Amino acid sequence: MAVETILSAINKTLFEQMEKDDSIVVFGEDVGFEGGVFRATKGLQQKFGKKRSFDSPLAESAIIGGAIGMAVNGLKPVVEIQFSGFMFPGYNQIVTHAARYRNRTRGLHTVPMVIRMPYGGGIRALEHHSESLETLFASIPGLKVVIPSTPYDAKGLLTSAIQDPDPVIFMEPKRLYRAFKQELPDKEIKVQIGKAKTLKKGDDITVVAWGSLVREAEKAIKGLEDEGINVELIDLRTIQPYDKEAIAESVKKTGRLLVVHEAVKSFGPGAEIISMINEEAFLYLEAPPTRLTGFVITIPLPKGEHHFIITPEQIRSKIKELMAF
């Protein structure tokens, strides 16, 4: 057993999978020689050579377009977009080609590629560095969208993503990269894409979160049992396809739902989950299903970022509000 951060778990998974499968190639801006801006790909070029781990031009459209061509022709590219807010020049390639190619060829060709990208706030970064853009991918048929919150899930979900025959958007909460460590098996592990994880059982209210806000939710619910509030906490892990059954069954038990996400409120994942609950578990509800989300603004620059980031105190307050309804 090794003790890993999310960042080191990602790095070791890439080593593990590249050793196992020589069709895997890893590239992006500064990914090869430097090992990426966060060093997630550190050492890969030295181990596997410049043909399998290399630097790309500063051109996201070329990175993703090239990866699609590689994937269609037998390789398994794992590309890095340096920050999620830089992906827009490549969004055309993702939506018009990567997501559609299986359907376009009626299943003759698939696009086995992974697009990794650090996302979210919390590190006082510059503009285009801190957005939470999962909604832009989750609404596109043909894409899977994955967000780990622990080193174990980072390793297990990245393994599953690399081995998946279809394109996977792998979003990494960068403020958790080095935030904590966890013991991991030295062998390959897989976490099924599309399956949520119940982190804590409870009977009074269901809280659903993902990425860095899982940690904030864990802090928020500490001590609530002493106040007579027993929270069931679910880490969604996969945004598309998401685990409808796990959430619905939990809400049928608790009667209350709070969805917490860093993405802006309008048309976000919380709205989708609440709509599903209204369809699947409406008669079980004891209170209106509720969202606690980012404001509908561009995330502020460093001095104002703390006004945007959701805190454990806000989560705890919203839980108590729903319990009092």
How would you describe this protein?
- It is built from eleven helices and 14 strands.
- It is α/β, with parallel strands linked by helices and 325 residues long.
- The chain has two domains: 2-184, 3-Layer(aba) Sandwich (Rossmann fold); 197-323, Rossmann fold (3-Layer(aba) Sandwich).
- The strands form three sheets. A seven-stranded mixed sheet has the order 3-2-4-5-7-6-12, sandwiched between helices. A five-stranded mixed sheet has the order 9-11-10-13-14, with helices on both faces.
- The radius of gyration is 20 Å and the shape is globular.
- The mean pLDDT is 96.
Question: What are the key terms here?
Answer:
single chain, 325 residues, alpha/beta, Rossmann fold, 2 domains, seven-stranded mixed β-sheet, five-stranded mixed β-sheet, 11 helices, 14 strands, 34% helix, 20% strand, globular
Strand content: 15-25%
Poorly predicted parts = none
Structural class: alpha/beta
Instruction: Please tally the helical runs, counting DSSP H or I stretches of 4 or more residues.
Output: 11
Please state how the strands of the largest beta sheet are arranged side by side: 3-2-4-5-7-6-12
Under CATH, the topology of the largest domain is which?
Rossmann fold
CATH structural architecture of the largest domain: 3-Layer(aba) Sandwich
| N→C terminal distance | 46 Å
Shape: globular
Can you give the helix content as a percent range?
Answer: 25-40%
CATH homologous superfamily heading of the largest domain:
Thiamin diphosphate (ThDP)-binding fold, Pyr/PP domains
- How many β-strand runs? 14
CATH domain class name of the largest domain: Alpha Beta
Query: Whole-number average pLDDT?
Result: 96
Number of domains: 2
Major sheet, described briefly? Answer: 7 strands, mixed
